[in-house]
C-alpha cells in the first residue's frame, strides 16, 4: 500500500506535465489559426480554379442553377456558408468544356452555356458574389464583403481555332484560358497525350499574343512541357498555372517541372497549387486498383508542393488553385472550401510570415493580373487585334 501511495505524486506530476504540454500546443495551434484568419480577413483569398459550374451542369437537375442552391448545403465541395468559413475572397469559376467536343462538335455552344451558368450563379447570389473583370474589381468586391467572382476557360478547344471567338469570350467576361485540356489541339500539345507539335504551332503562339493583347491570362496548366516553354518564350505578360503542383514532388504530367519553375521569376507568373490527390501524392498517383482501396493524400502533401515551389521559383510565384468540385474528394484536412484557414495555419506553424501568407493568398495573383492589364493597354495602343487564321499560319485546310 505504501508503494502505491508513494507513486501517486509522481503520477500526478506526469499527468500535469502532459496536460500542460497539450494545453500549450492547443494555444499554439489557436495562435496560428488566428494568424491565418487575420491574413484572410486582410486580403481576398484568391483560388484559381473551382468547377462549380460543371457540377451544376451534371447535377440531378442539369444546368438548373436555382435547383442547385448554394445558399444551402450542397452535395459537393462548395456553397456560400463554406466559402465564408474558408475565408474565400475571390474565386475563378472554371467554365470547363471537355476535350471530347472537338470530335462531337458544339464546343463553342457548350462554352457559352457554361459561361451562362457561371453568370447565373453570380447574379442569383448577388448579395454574396460579385462579378470581377479586373484586379481593381476584385479588391472592390472584397471591400464590399462579397466573393469576387471571375471566369476562367479550361481548354482552348472551345475557341474552335478562331481568334474572333477568343475575343468574344473575353467580351463575355472570361479572364483566363487554359491553352489545352486533356487532348492535343491542332495548335498546342497537351500534357496528357503524345506530343505532336513539340509545343505550340505558329497559330498557338498567335493565340498567346492575342491573349496578351486582350489582357486575358495565359493559363498553362494541362499543357505539355514544350507548350509551357513556348508560351513563356512568346508571352509579354506573366502566365499562370491555375491548378497544378510541382513535378519534382509528385511525378505526374499535370505538374510543373523544375526547369519551368526556374523561369517564373523572369516572367513574373505564378503556380496555383492544386489539391488533386493524384497530383500531390506519389502513392495515389501510382495507385491502380478499386476505388475503395485508393490511398489518401493529406494537407502535408499540399504543403510540400507549396514549399517546393517557393524554394525553386520564389515566394512571389506561388498561389492556390484547389480544383474543388472538379475532384471527387480533397486531401485529408482539405476536404472542401471551408478548410483554407487550416492550410494557412499550418504554413504559419511552419514559420511563414504574415507577409508571405498574404502573397500566397492574394498578392501574387493580383500582381500578375495588374501586369497583364498593363500589357494589354500597351499592346492595344501599338496594334490592332490579330486577324490571323490557323489556315494562314499553320497551313491547315478549313
Question: Descriptors for this entry?
Answer:
398 residues, TIM Barrel, nine-stranded parallel beta sheet, 9 strands, globular, disordered N terminus
Mean pLDDT: 94
Rounded to an integer, what's the Rg over CA atoms? Answer: 23 Å
Task: Tell me the CATH architecture.
Answer: Alpha-Beta Barrel
- First-last Cα distance: 97 Å
* Unreliable residue runs: 1-8, 10-19
Q: What class do helices, strands and sheet pairing give?
A: alpha/beta
Main sheet record = 9 strands, parallel
What can you tell me about this protein's structure?
The protein contains 17 helices and nine strands. Helix 7 links the parallel strand 4 (147-154) and strand 5. Helix 1 packs across helix 15 and helix 1 (2-42) packs parallel to helix 16. The chain has helices at residues 2-42, 52-57, 80-85, 101-104, 107-124, 135-143, 163-171, 202-214, 225-234, 258-261, 264-267, 277-280, 282-286, 299-313, 340-349, 354-382, 390-394; strands spanning 45-50, 88-94, 129-131, 147-154, 174-178, 217-219, 239-244, 270-273, 318-320.
Protein topology:
Elements: H1 2-42, E1 45-50, H2 52-57, H3 80-85, E2 88-94, H4 101-104, H5 107-124, E3 129-131, H6 135-143, E4 147-154, H7 163-171, E5 174-178, H8 202-214, E6 217-219, H9 225-234, E7 239-244, H10 258-261, H11 264-267, E8 270-273, H12 277-280, H13 282-286, H14 299-313, E9 318-320, H15 340-349, H16 354-382, H17 390-394
Parallel strand pairs: 1-2, 2-4, 3-4, 4-5, 5-6, 6-7, 7-8, 8-9
Amino acid at each position: 500500500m505504501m508503494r502505491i501511495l508513494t507513486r501517486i505524486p509522481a503520477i500526478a506530476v506526469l499527468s500535469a506535465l502532459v496536460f500542460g504540454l497539450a494545453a500549450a500546443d492547443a494555444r499554439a495551434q489557436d495562435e496560428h489559426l488566428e494568424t491565418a484568419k487575420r491574413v484572410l480577413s486582410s486580403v481576398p483569398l484568391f483560388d484559381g480554379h473551382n468547377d462549380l459550374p460543371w457540377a451544376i451542369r451534371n447535377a440531378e437537375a442539369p444546368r438548373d442553377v436555382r435547383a442547385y442552391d448554394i445558399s444551402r448545403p450542397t452535395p459537393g465541395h462548395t456553397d456560400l456558408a463554406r466559402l465564408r468559413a474558408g475565408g474565400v475572397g475571390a474565386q475563378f469559376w472554371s467554365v470547363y468544356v471537355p476535350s471530347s467536343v472537338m470530335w462531337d462538335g458544339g464546343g463553342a455552344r457548350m462554352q457559352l452555356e457554361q459561361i451562362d451558368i457561371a453568370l447565373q450563379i453570380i447574379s442569383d447570389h448577388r448579395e454574396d458574389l460579385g462579378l470581377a473583370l479586373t484586379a481593381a474589381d476584385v479588391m472592390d468586391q472584397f471591400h464590399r464583403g462579397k466573393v469576387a467572382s471571375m471566369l476562367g476557360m479550361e481548354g482552348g478547344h472551345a475557341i474552335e481555332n478562331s481568334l474572333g471567338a477568343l475575343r468574344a469570350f473575353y467580351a463575355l467576361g472570361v479572364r483566363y484560358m487554359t491553352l489545352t485540356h486533356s487532348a492535343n489541339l491542332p495548335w498546342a500539345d497537351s500534357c496528357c497525350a503524345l506530343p505532336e507539335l513539340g509545343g505550340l504551332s505558329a497559330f498557338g503562339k498567335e493565340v498567346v499574343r492575342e491573349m496578351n493583347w486582350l489582357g486575358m491570362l495565359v493559363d498553362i496548366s494541362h499543357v505539355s512541357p514544350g507548350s509551357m516553354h513556348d508560351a513563356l518564350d512568346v508571352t509579354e505578360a506573366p502566365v499562370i498555372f491555375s491548378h497544378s503542383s510541382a513535378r519534382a514532388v509528385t511525378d505526374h504530367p499535370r505538374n510543373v517541372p523544375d526547369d519551368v519553375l526556374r523561369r517564373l521569376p523572369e516572367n513574373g507568373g505564378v503556380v496555383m497549387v492544386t489539391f488533386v490527390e493524384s497530383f500531390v501524392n506519389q502513392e495515389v498517383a501510382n495507385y491502380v486498383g478499386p476505388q475503395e482501396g485508393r490511398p489518401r493524400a493529406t494537407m502535408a502533401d499540399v504543403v510540400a508542393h507549396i514549399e517546393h515551389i517557393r524554394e525553386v521559383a520564389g515566394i512571389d510565384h506561388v498561389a492556390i488553385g484547389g480544383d474543388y468540385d472538379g475532384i471527387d474528394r480533397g486531401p485529408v484536412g482539405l476536404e472542401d472550401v471551408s478548410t483554407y484557414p487550416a492550410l494557412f495555419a499550418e504554413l504559419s506553424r511552419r514559420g511563414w510570415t504574415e507577409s508571405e501568407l498574404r502573397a500566397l493568398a492574394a498578392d501574387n495573383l493580383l500582381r500578375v493580373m495588374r501586369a497583364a492589364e498593363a500589357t494589354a493597354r500597351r499592346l492595344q495602343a501599338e496594334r490592332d487585334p490579330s486577324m490571323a487564321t490557323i489556315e494562314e499560319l499553320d497551313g491547315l485546310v478549313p
